[in-house]
Amino acid sequence: MSSLKYPKQSDSSKETVEHYETAPRSPSSSASSHLRAGYLATHGAHSHSSSWVRIRHYMQEPVAEFLGVMLLIIFGNGVNCQVVLSSNPGVAPTQRGDYLSINIAWGIGTAMGVWIAAGVSGGHINPAVTLALATFRGFPWKKVPGYIAAQVLGGFTGAAIVYGNYFHAINVFEGGVGVRTQATAGLFATYASDYLTNVSCFFSEFLGTAVLMLIVLALSDKKNCPPPAGLTPLILCFLVLGIGTSLGMQTAYAINPARDLGPRLLTAAAGYGTMVWNYRNQYWIWCPILAPILGAQMATIVYDLFLYTGNDGLLKDKHVFEPGMAPASRKNMPGGPGADEVPV
User: Are 254 and 190 in contact (CB under 8 A)?
Assistant: First the structure.
């Protein structure tokens, strides 16, 4: 390859170039360089900040659902472990809690999970709720996969945190390091009482989720009696507490596919074996996943057929009003300050 040849530079031009390169710069040129450097630094930082804001915009809702379910499971699986594991004298001198404290903690976990997510994502923290809202309330179907994936991952992460926290207590309770049986698998995922038939298991989860969904729909219905802004999580706390204390004994009231599937995945990864999947002929699919989904769908159908008068429900675009009253004259029941901000 031939080399490029440049015309020979004269000595005088060399001196001129050297003089320019070595000559001190004037104060004005130095100030300009500082201003230019400051602009570039500020502009670069602003560019990075804008990039993160754009990325965060797409992540906010799934991350809110992830954190909401993670908090739910930290409280819920955490209280399961504390109450059950402390019944072993090698773990604690006396048992720390009972069935009521389990229900209280699950209610608090629900409230905390909804509180952190409601203003960002709507605070579904439950795939059954997400699917029902997508089917009957116009929630965008394109968001559903991201919401459900984040919810299940949040359940897995919350269970992993609790498992790490109680790892040594589980070893003591199980009678050896690495011994894992259904006795502690039930601290994370749900398993039914032995005396129940499969149909009874399904109905228990279907019923519990239907009750949950009916109240969720009423809370978000502006024409019913929505609570003041910010109180929905507190009401949901009492709702889950009520479901647990009245309907939760037989199947551990999953009433939420992510609450069961996420922790069940954790137990499979933690060495509990295929038992977590083979229990009662793939119980994990038809009881804590399908039953809650169908229960939420049925509850929404019932609510829409008999109570809901909005334009985005099952009877959308139908003029539903009280007999003898013109549609325009029907008044909304006051819901208190900020009722319009109740998340769905």
Answer: yes
pLDDT tens digits, one per residue of 163-176: 999 999 999 999 99
Most confident among 39-48, 143-152, 224-233, 332-341 (mean pLDDT): 143-152
CA within 13 Å, CB half, 242: 10
CA distance 337 to 243: 28
pLDDT score at 311: 84
Looking at per-residue pLDDT, the higher value among 246 and 317 belongs to: 246
First to last CA, the chain: 72
Distance in angstroms (rounded) separating the CA atoms of residues 187 and 162 = 10
SS3 45: helix
Per-residue pLDDT, 47 = 66
CB atoms within 10 A of CB 62: 21
User: Which of 177, 216, 229 has its CA nearest to residue 295?
Assistant: 216
Compute the distance between CA of residue 326 and CA of residue 256 in angstroms, rounded to an integer.
40
Distance CA 76, CA 244 (A): 12
pLDDT tens-place string over residues 296-328: 999 999 999 999 998 888 887 554 444 444 444
Residue 149: count of CB within 10 angstroms of its CB: 15
Measured CA to CA, the distance from residue 59 to residue 57 in angstroms comes to 6
Whether 221 contacts 313, CB under 8 Å: no
Rounded Cα–Cα distance for residues 263 and 151 (Å): 11
Where helices occur in the chain by DSSP H, the ranges are 11-22, 27-85, 99-121, 127-136, 144-165, 167-174, 182-185, 198-219, 232-247, 257-269, 275-278, 283-285, 291-306
pLDDT in tens, 74-98: 999 999 999 999 999 999 999 999 9
C-alpha–C-alpha distance, residues 46 and 6, integer Å: 44
Enter the pTM of the model: 0.80
